[in-house]
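Deliverable D5.2: sample structural annotation.
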Amino acid sequence: MAAIEFDHITKRFPDGTVAVDDIELTVADGEFMIFVGPSGCGKTTALRMVAGLEEITSGEIRIGGKVVNDLEPPDRDIAMVFQNYALYPHMSVADNIGFPLRMQRLKKSEMSDSVREVALLLGIDDLLKRKPRELSGGQRQRVAMGRAIIRHPQAFLMDEPLSNLDAKLRVQMRAELVKLHRRLDVTTIYVTHDQIEAMTLGQRVAVLYRGAIQQVDTPQRLYRRPANTFVASFIGSPPMNFIRGRLADRQIELGDYTIDLPDELRRSLRRDAGDVLVGLRPEEFEDARVHRDGSRTIVPAEVEVTEQLGPETFAYFRVEGFEVVEIGDRPVELAGALSARLDPRTSAAAGERLDLVINERGLHLFDLESGESLVGR
């Protein structure tokens, strides 16, 4: 096992495109680190530079304290798991798992013992004689994992390994990956564009955008204390709502409505007054008819769409006078609408007027120009 250090790493392609922009990050020994972000943000390029599959324009990558910039991939003592499994179709499961040991010219008896040990760990010991074409997607992914594990590398690099699986199997595999990491305790960098994977798998998560790291933190702190509007909009589903507001006299003005700032939020603000961007996650709105707490700010809303999901109801609505700012992806027909995650007891329906309670403790405030959070971390 070993720490992986990115020391001001930059990747610039010949056409001038900067894919990775001055990344500085240390992945601790034994840590499960997630790289998450939209397509083209540089996360896979960063991973490929660690693996030695992509040249580094500037900076240093160190694995276990050793600079690996000029080392060939086989000499870096890392194992990579790909999205497409990359199994040899003509080989059995046992031969696929044991292939790295075969390259090391180990004795057949040693290889056989190691293969069975890894297969037992992954729950595929009854599949060792099968060929990849006889396996399900989840089984193939376990074989690919086994081939990586059997080498006992310093680190695992995983490039969207679950993206080809169906939704139910992805949930199962996420849980198995967490248990597997707990048992192996090997430094792991896992690349994904799926924020649910990022939030459920990572001990820490690095959010990337346009080649740069926007924030590195635990999943819960990313959600509760986003560093800027990009992180706030990318982490969370439905994404955070953004409304133009004005900060003055310990209050926030949103259109015709005024919200008193909680003392804790007010004390942590970096600014006393001025135009700001107010962020509210969908769960910070409640149906006034079913909410259980004391009275708070109530706004009348026009409901456009509802989605009944059993344990919760999503509602998309508009509030007259609110200036909604669109950040991130949203269907065109819902442009300018806000989203709420409501108690399933709500009777909210499309076309209905509904009084919504705003939880002022859930306010996020951002600089209107830079998008940076105005709340001290």
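Annotation notes: The radius of gyration is 24 Å. Residues 240-367 form a domain with the OB fold (Dihydrolipoamide Acetyltransferase, E2P) fold (CATH 2.40.50.140).
The annotation will be released with the project's public dataset once the embargo ends.
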